[in-house]
Design brief:
The chain has 15 helices and 17 strands. It is α/β, with parallel strands linked by helices and 405 residues long. The protein has 2 domains: 1-16 and 323-405, Arc Repressor Mutant, subunit A (Orthogonal Bundle), CATH 1.10.10; 21-269, TIM Barrel (Alpha-Beta Barrel), CATH 3.20.20.70. Bound molecules: S-adenosylmethionine and iron/sulfur cluster (SF4).
Length: 405
């Protein structure tokens, strides 16, 4: 393992108690690659062979087994099956996967088990099968209910399929999230609001509203579509926030809104700088032990991953995070949470004293980006607006933390 030490880093971290540990499982296939997507997703052509689900579940189980010594005995409160399009897998394959996970990891009683599902990749019985396999939270990638915008996004489903998927999901699951995107090609503010209005009509308890971004290595990046300008996107964001607040949703993270008691505990664990084991092609993980934090990335190409996982070498990259980098990584996550975190969580989760980032905290507070209350680490409304600038202050090269502003 390479030990990368950032300038200014000193002793390794020392933890009093390890953070909660979640499990992320990546299922990397989709029917078609969407032009805006930079996730590790690979086309599986309908009509050809389906995803090699038996072999892939075998690889995931081998991957999990090779990771067990690093997380031995730790209870797991949440599992997330993400993609890609996990709902392309059959209920039988998901059942075998979850049974194998339960047999190897101590899942907490009532553990949250989320699965991402795309409209147009399922029938109602499939959802029932996922539920019977142990999935208790479904996250549906709707993106929009507008036929024009679904076409502009190159989605494989239409608006009717999106509605049918959500109908089935809310009937079968207590916890349902809908993913929506705004700032879509040629979208007006009232069209973005119409999507939110329609999502609210289904009475789901969680919504994720993402601003469409042009990611490098995507078709949209090479051939940008006509996107609304910054003012229009800001107006959409404000209108969505106001509408969801009126509907009783708590805007608890940059893109996440939930009715009280229905936050996504898996994502909250990421944002509170918890640990997570990531298995599956391209999955990322972060696991703490008493004196170090280790990050791992799995082989990205599904075929390569299949071979390597079975051979007992699923990780393509493994590195210990230097004490000097932990401050930035912690702030990058926790400042996404609207209510922030208690200041004491810094030492608990990084094993480094808060004083290690005292200078940067002072600068951020003086610039009005961070709440002056010393008992919390929380962005101000200005800090949330300029979140990238705020987080960059904690980068250890010091380049961003020069006084005065
Ligand atoms: C892991 S992705 C994929 C989930 C699922 N395969 C789907 O497409 O519905 C989770 C969510 O990220 C969001 N997303 C993906 N690419 C994005 C982009 N370029 N800009 C903003 N949001 C994006 C979408 O809302 C998507 O549902
Ligand atoms: S379906 Fe989802 S994961 Fe697959 S390519 Fe489209 S956005 Fe990416």
């Amino acid at each position: 393992m390479t030990r990368i030490l950032a300038p200014g880093s000193t002793a390794p971290p020392a933890f009093r108690a390890l953070p909660p540990l979640s499990l992320y499982v990546h299922l990397p296939w989709c029917i078609r690659k969407c032009p805006y997507c930079d996730f590790n997703s690979h086309e599986w052509r309908r009509g050809g062979d389906g995803p090699p689900e038996d072999a892939y579940v075998d690889a995931l189980v081998a991957d999990l087994e090779s990771a067990l010594p690093s997380v031995w005995g730790r209870k797991v409160p949440t599992v997330f099956l993400g993609g890609g399009t996990p709902s392309l897998f059959s209920p039988e394959a998901i059942d075998r996967l979850l049974a194998a996970i339960r047999a190897r990891l101590p899942l907490a009683a009532g553990a949250e088990v989320t699965m991402e599902a795309n409209p147009g990749t399922f029938e109602r019985e499939r959802f029932e099968g996922f539920r019977d396999a142990g999935v208790n939270r479904l996250s549906i990638g709707v993106q929009s209910f507008s036929p024009r915008h679904l076409a502009a996004l190159g989605r494989v489903h239409d608006a009717a399929e999106a509605r049918a998927a959500v109908d089935a999901a809310v009937e079968l699951f207590d916890e349902v999230n809908l993913d929506l995107m705004y700032g879509l090609p040629d979208q007006a503010v009232d069209e973005a609001l119409a999507d939110v209005e329609e999502a609210l009509a289904f009475r789901t308890k969680h919504l994720s509203c993402y601003q469409l971004t042009l990611e490098p290595n995507t078709l949209f990046h090479r051939h940008p579509p006509p996107l609304p300008d910054e003012d229009e996107v800001d107006a959409m964001q404000s209108a969505i926030e106001a509408r969801l607040e009126r509907a009783g949703f708590d805007h608890y993270e940059v893109s996440a809104y939930a009715r009280p008691g229905h936050r996504c505990m898996h994502n909250v664990n990421y944002w509170r700088f918890g640990d997570y084991l990531g298995i599956g092609a391209g999955a990322h993980g972060k696991v703490s032990s008493p004196d170090r934090v280790v990050r791992e990335v799995r082989w990205k190409q599904p075929i390569r991953y299949l071979e390597q996982a079975i051979a007992g070498t699923p990780a393509m990259e493994r590195r210990e995070v230097a004490a000097g980098e932990l401050g930035f990584e912690f702030m990058l996550n926790v400042l996404r949470l609207t209510e922030g975190v208690p200041a004491t969580l810094f030492a608990e989760r990084t094993g480094v004293p808060l004083a290690a980032i005292g200078r940067e905290l002072g600068i951020a507070t003086r610039r009005g980006l961070l709440d002056p209350d010393p008992s919390v680490l929380r962005a101000t409304p200005l800090g949330r607006r300029f979140l990238n600038d705020l987080v960059a202050l904690f980068l250890r090269d010091g380049a961003h933390a020069k006084e005065p502003a």
